[in-house]
Amino acid sequence: MLNLNINLTIFLDYYPLLYMKVQPIQIICILLVILFLFYSNCKGSCKGSCKGSCKSTNLYEGMDSLHMDEVKHIDGSKEEDNYSHVDINSDDSGDSDDSDKHPSLLNIYGEPLKSCRSRGSSDMRGSWNDGFCDEMGGGVHQICLDVDKTNKFSESTGQGPWSEGRKGANHCMCLGAWALYKARQEQGEIPKTYNELHCESIMDDALDERYVNNWNTWNGNELPDQIVQGVNQVMDQCYSKGTEQQQNYLINLYNNLTNDKPEFHNTKTYKQFN
């Protein structure tokens, strides 16, 4: 009898729930609470091996959508427009790949700036920042173009023949170099070329007032008012490639830049959009 009492005492020490006379219904309730907490944590994290993995990963946690008037440019300025809205929580995955789109900067169509570097390329020589023509200082390399559709671009703008070594690739060109290239074509100094631009890879800041001086100067080789040919060519080429919504955004940028600049007012391009 003594041995039985000792064994029973040991048994209750190891199994206190029995000693406390916990009822089965209480155990079930505790288990249900634990399962609920686990499920809530799993659902909220979108990680691990939860049943039914999350349909998409939102890079902007806590936001269902990203409005363009909340996007800041790389130089800290804030985009203030109501033209477009990017739904970053869309479930319309299809075959699209947003890896070539800038997370915050906009192009001249009011949409996420696209990479100038060809998809899948490891090219590091395009004067870009991780593939994007988003330089704010220096030469302001913001014009993305197809080098194959130019004719000795670098030599035609007072540089060495380096652009010949860029055949088959895109490149971010300086605002001033592009403007000079088009101004010389307009004056008949060099052969004309067409359709060089990748418009979705040109940031909207390129048509901002603060870069007027960059358009009009180029290492002492500039021509008077070369900004007119440079900007008008961006407008002509990119307007023809855009959708109606993209065209409206581009017209707004163009007019904001040119309305107070009389050198534009007698040009065919200006008259078309005013």
Could you explain how this protein is built, in words?
With 274 residues, this protein is an alpha+beta fold. The protein folds into 2 domains: 2-36, no CATH class; 101-272, no CATH class. It has helices at 2-14, 16-19, 24-45, 153-156, 175-186, 212-216, 226-241, 244-258, 268-272; strands spanning 66-67, 85-86, 101-106, 112-114, 141-146, 170-174. The longest helix has 22 residues, at 24-45. It is elongated. The N and C termini lie far apart (108 Å).
Briefly note the structural class of the backbone. Answer: alpha+beta
Strand elements, count: 6
Shape: elongated
Number of separate domains: 2
Strand content: 5-15%
Task: Sketch the topology as an H/E string, one letter per element.
Answer: HHHEEEEEHEHHHHH
Q: What is the tally of helical segments?
A: 9
Spatial strand order of the main sheet: 1-2
Unreliable runs: 1-12, 14-20, 42-96
Compute the gyration radius: what is it?
31 Å
The description of the largest β-sheet is: 2 strands, antiparallel
**Could you tell me how far the N terminus lies from the C terminus, measured between alpha carbons in angstroms?**
108 Å
- Average pLDDT metric: 77
Which terms would index this structure?
elongated; disordered N terminus; 2 domains; 9 helices; 274 residues; alpha+beta; two-stranded antiparallel ribbon; 35% helix
Care to give the gist of this entry?
With 274 residues, the chain is an alpha+beta fold. Helices cover 35% and strands 9% of the residues.
Note the topology.
Layout: H1 2-14, H2 16-19, H3 24-45, E1 66-67, E2 85-86, E3 101-106, E4 112-114, E5 141-146, H4 153-156, E6 170-174, H5 175-186, H6 212-216, H7 226-241, H8 244-258, H9 268-272
Antiparallel strand pairs: 1-2, 3-4, 5-6
